[in-house]
Amino acid sequence: MNSFRCKLPFIHYSIENFLNPVEYKKISDFYNKLNFSLKHTDLYKFYQTDELTENKNILFFKKKVLKICKEIENHENIHTLDESEDIMAVNLKINGSEMIRNNLDIFGSFYRADNYLLCHDDCLENRKYAFS
Is residue 8 situated within a structural domain? Predict the structure, then answer.
């Protein structure tokens, strides 16, 4: 059943004003200096950077994303949490695999006019959330 669960529609969240103007300027300046490579398969065609997770220039961004993920987990699991269970146990029960704490993959990307991303099952073993 675990493989079927992964194919169910995803809940989504929209977070208004995630970055304040100073943070936006910082991330925008950082983004505009990055090198991008074409990524192309039958499912997608777009430009992407190398992994950025450990880059100290975006540590503030990583911390904000992790905070939001934690808030979402607390909100999603509040009704399923038994007194004897912790949040990781609930994640294991709901998703069939544990989310690795504080583990993010962060890339920059952009799409040109002829680029695309087709709908597809994007479930990866240790992925709980995807954001853009």
Answer: no
pLDDT 10s digits, 87-107:
445 444 444 444 445 567 889
The answer to whether position 100 is within a domain reads yes
Domain contains 4: no
Residue 82's domain spans which residues? 20-117
For the chain, how many structural domains are there in total?
Answer: 1
Strand partners, 39: 46
**Predicted confidence (pLDDT) per residue in 12-53, tens digit:** 677 889 999 999 999 999 999 999 999 999 989 999 999 998
Neighbouring C-beta atoms of residue 61, cutoff 10 Å? 19
CA angle 26, 30, 32 (to 5 degrees): 120
Residue 49 counted as domain residue? yes
Global pTM value: 0.65
40 vs 38: CA distance, rounded Å: 6
CA distance 90 to 80: 7
